[in-house]
TrEMBL record:
<dbReference type="InterPro" id="IPR041496">
    <property type="entry name" value="YitH/HolE_GNAT"/>
</dbReference>
<dbReference type="Pfam" id="PF18014">
    <property type="entry name" value="Acetyltransf_18"/>
</dbReference>
<dbReference type="InterPro" id="IPR016181">
    <property type="entry name" value="Acyl_CoA_acyltransferase"/>
</dbReference>
<dbReference type="InterPro" id="IPR052729">
    <property type="entry name" value="Acyl/Acetyltrans_Enzymes"/>
</dbReference>
<protein>
    <submittedName>
        <fullName>GNAT family N-acetyltransferase</fullName>
    </submittedName>
</protein>
<dbReference type="GO" id="GO:0016747">
    <property type="term" value="F:acyltransferase activity, transferring groups other than amino-acyl groups"/>
</dbReference>
<keyword id="KW-0808">Transferase</keyword>
<dbReference type="Pfam" id="PF00583">
    <property type="entry name" value="Acetyltransf_1"/>
</dbReference>
<feature type="domain" description="N-acetyltransferase">
    <location>
        <begin position="1"/>
        <end position="134"/>
    </location>
</feature>
<dbReference type="InterPro" id="IPR000182">
    <property type="entry name" value="GNAT_dom"/>
</dbReference>
Amino acid sequence: MQIRSMTREDLALALDWAAAEGWNPGLADAACFHAADPDGFLVGEVDGTPAGCVSAVRYPGGFGFLGFYIVRAEFRGRGHGMALWRAAMARLQPGVVGLDGVVAQQANYRTSGFTLVHRNVRYGAAAPVAPPVEDAPPIVALAAIPFATLAAYDRRFFPAPRNSFLRAWITAPGHVAVAATGPAGLLGYGVLRPCRDGSKIGPLFAETPAAARALFSALLDAAPPGPVFLDLPEPNADAIAMATAAGMAPAFETARMYAGPAPDLPLVHIYGITTFELG
């Protein structure tokens, strides 16, 4: 297997593979993911034919995230997956590495030095309806918030700055980005994006349950017809209650694991993670 960095065109193909696996990528994911780390998406080729892929996105400050790990069915069982894994881990060393792995692979990830920190659960519904919100703060278009303010706020909820990705994510075609505001400033923000099947909300960060619900409601109102999904950290019981009250039910789960010291993230304020691919 020959392993190299993906081009934008390669990434579009890998997203098709992800869709075939049932991962339901966003329609504009290719450009946003590429912006996160242009060299961070690897493709493995056998005799010139793409056989598998993996992401190894490096952020400033020694944090990396591993995902998008796919080997096409006809190339499995030959060691190609391990070759991709080793290439990805080598690219992210030294540093702390995170991943959202399928639960069935937890034992394998542990042998590579990863430790389970918490589960993420995907909630979804064909037509979720946000419950009424008491004392809802004002909701504005995220474009009304200075980017420097947004980037500083986002940094509280992610282990590293990710400005290039963030700029792409909040302005991508079809993405709806909103913010909750109050006298003290930014109270949270959220993004909804169209996917191959319906829409996903992520990230959704908020200072209070009322702010989270107000953002959630605004994004649900902006969603086109079709199912809506929210990937939330299981330790946030209020996020589960919010999703459940909207008629959503668990549809999928992943194991958030880290190799190295786990970042101390405020999960109580994380109502929706950005993506399983990038953390």
